[in-house]
Amino acid sequence: ATPMAVMVGTGLGAQHGILFKNAGALEDATKLDVIVFDKTGTLTMGEPRVVELVAAEGRSEDDALRAAAAVDRGSDHPLALAIVKRAEGLDVPQMTGFENLEGRGARAEIAGEPVLVGNRRLMDEERIDLGALTAKAERLKGEGRTVVHVAQAGRVLGLIAIADAPRPSAKAAVAKLRERGVEVAMLTGDNEGTARRIAGELGIDMVLADVLPGQKADKVKELQAQGKKVGMVGDGVNDAPALTQADVGFAIGAGTDVAMESADVVLMKSDPYDVVGAIELSRATLRKMH
Ligand code: ADP
Ligand code: MG
């Protein structure tokens, strides 16, 4: 790479809010075979809100919401913030002994009873029988909702369905990447059903779901072991190791500092379509050098 072409390329990128942190990334971006997008906060807005409450038999929707909000007051997870917000105006009880359960949810005690808030994996691990709520949870996942389960003293209280809208340009970004011969994948800690539904809406068929935070980088490694050059796009603390592992890591500008520090390219406008821009810019820059 001639230093001049690289300077012009990175300068042009910067003008468009695409910050290449090193010259190597500009070259590597021309070679990417697959782009892996984190779901929450990257393909979606990362502004989840509660859209539906389902009570277990003999319980009320408010019982479930109050218990979940009590526990999730202790968490800064985006889903927790959505739950606490929805419970505004309700009499949310005090909790003690909050514990974050990475990739699964959280637990605490209310009036001496253990309360669990989280995904299906957490309920299965704790042997909570969901009964008739199993089918309702599946229906919600099929609609693309993230489902948070609430249990107290070993019994399910209800479900909280949460929606997070796709970023407006996500679908077009996927289509353009595929047109350019780049494969696209979705990587998420969320469940398979929800992930597949949202991926389908965006035109993505490679879905890596139910991935624990510590395993995201391994998924990138597995793709690299298939001989692929991998670009990873993410926003969260969770995504940082995967961004580092990828051949080119792209961070969403509205994301966390850790993600931005770990990435090779920062997308200042938080626009997934700028991944296309970054690749086109790198290809144009390299063409000028030959
Ligand atoms: P992601 O944010 O990419 O979906 P996480 O690994 O942070 O992945 O979480 C995985 C899943 O665990 C979430 O989709 C949710 O179902 C559940 N979860 C995690 N933390 C919480 C929490 N504080 N409250 C409720 N559910 C949670
Ligand atoms: Mg995210």
What does this structure look like?
- With 290 residues, the protein is α/β, with parallel strands linked by helices.
- The protein has 2 domains: 166 residues, HAD superfamily/HAD-like (Rossmann fold, 3-Layer(aba) Sandwich); 115 residues, Calcium-transporting ATPase, cytoplasmic domain N, CATH 3.40.1110.10.
- The chain is built from 13 helices and 13 strands.
- The strands form 2 sheets. Strands 1-13-12-11-2-9-10 form a 7-stranded mixed sheet, with helices on both faces. It has a 6-stranded antiparallel sheet with strand order 3-8-7-6-5-4.
- Helix 9 links the parallel strand 9 and strand 10.
- Helix 1 packs antiparallel against helix 13 and helix 4 crosses helix 5.
- The longest helix has 15 residues.
- The chain starts with a helix and ends with a helix.
- Bound molecules: adenosine-5'-diphosphate (ADP) and magnesium ion.
- This is P-type Cu(+) transporter.
- One of its GO terms (cellular component) is plasma membrane.
- It is found in: Cell membrane.
- Keywords: ATP-binding, Cell membrane, Copper, Copper transport, Ion transport, Membrane, Metal-binding, Nucleotide-binding, Translocase, Transmembrane, Transmembrane helix, Transport.
- Its main location: membrane.
